[in-house]
Design goal:
By secondary structure, this protein is an alpha/beta fold. It has a domain at about 65-250: Peptidoglycan recognition protein-like (Lysozyme-like). The protein has seven helices and eight strands; from the N terminus they run ααββαβαβββααβαβ. The strands form two sheets. The chain has a six-stranded mixed β-sheet with strand order 2-5-4-6-3-7. β4 (about 140) and β5 form a beta hairpin.
Length: about 260
């Protein structure tokens, strides 16, 4: 006959054994009870970061629009040339784009995205100053409003004299400010892209500028004397006032608190 543990507990249990069982039960229940009763974190606060992570960082968030990848070749040679350009013009050898502070709007003076891509694709000295590397921008917005990415946001691009070290460049297919601003589809794509970028990098709306406004940017730097006053005519101040007004209308960036995991 097999012993029935229920009978053993209820009929033959000694006081000492009962006390031990009660103590064991308390040990099992107590941790869960304490966890349940602990005060919850305030909304928006994050827990202490685990080992291998950094402190919580406040970041801005916005929905990323669909982006079609159409990357130009940007290999070691072009990166080396970009680092040399940065040394000559900004005083430090660097090809990486870190913590951009400005977004610069351009129009492409090309009929299509394909033509714009071909302008950037080959690496030779630029046609204006005859200096390597070739010009480029990070993004292009087609007349249809579709967004194309040409270059990684980790890379500097030559699109605006005096600001390439700290700016993201956006080209718009077209031949004038008016043409771009009057195209609802293209403007919707442009505003979605710009909002996502400025929220991602915490860039203020006043630092979303047109190429023609480059000389007035507080981030403008240029060591080459002959180029200190060089700018272009695309997206003048009056045009950008219209653009920035529409950008404000897309809403504020949502503030998020998150843990940023250190690279492995």
């Amino acid at each position: 006959m097999i012993d029935d543990p229920t009978n053993d507990l209820t009929e033959h249990r000694s006081p000492r054994r009962a006390a031990l069982l009660l103590f064991a039960l308390i040990l099992l229940v107590l941790p869960a009870a304490l966890a349940h009763s602990a005060p919850a974190s305030k909304q928006g606060e994050s827990a202490t970061p685990p080992p291998g992570t950094s402190s919580p960082l406040i970041r801005a968030a916005a929905h990323k629009p669909p982006v079609i990848q159409k990357r130009i070749p940007f290999g070691k040679k072009r990166r080396r040339e970009m680092a040399g350009y940065s040394k000559r013009h900004y005083g430090k050898r660097e090809w990486r784009l870190k913590n951009p502070k400005v977004i610069v709007q351009h129009y492409s003076v090309t009929p299509t995205i394909a033509a714009l891509y071909n302008t950037f694709r080959t690496d030779q000295p630029d046609p204006e100053f005859n200096e390597p590397p070739n010009v480029c921008a990070h993004f292009g917005v087609a007349r249809s409003g579709k967004i194309f990415q040409f270059v990684s946001l980790d890379n500097r691009c030559r699109h605006t004299v005096g600001l390439n070290q700290t700016s993201i460049g956006i080209e718009h297919v077209g031949y004038s400010d008016h043409e771009v601003l009057s195209n609802p589809k293209q403007m919707r794509g442009s505003l979605k892209l710009t909002r996502w970028l400025r929220c991602r990098f915490d860039i203020r709306i006043r630092n979303v500028i047109g190429h023609n406004e480059s000389l007035s940017s507080p981030y403008h730097r240029e060591k080459v004397e002959a180029m200190k006053n060089v700018t272009h005519g695309d997206f003048k101040h009056s045009s950008m006032n219209r653009y920035r007004k529409q950008l404000r209308g897309t809403g504020r960036c949502k503030r998020l608190q998150r843990l940023v995991v250190s690279p492995v």
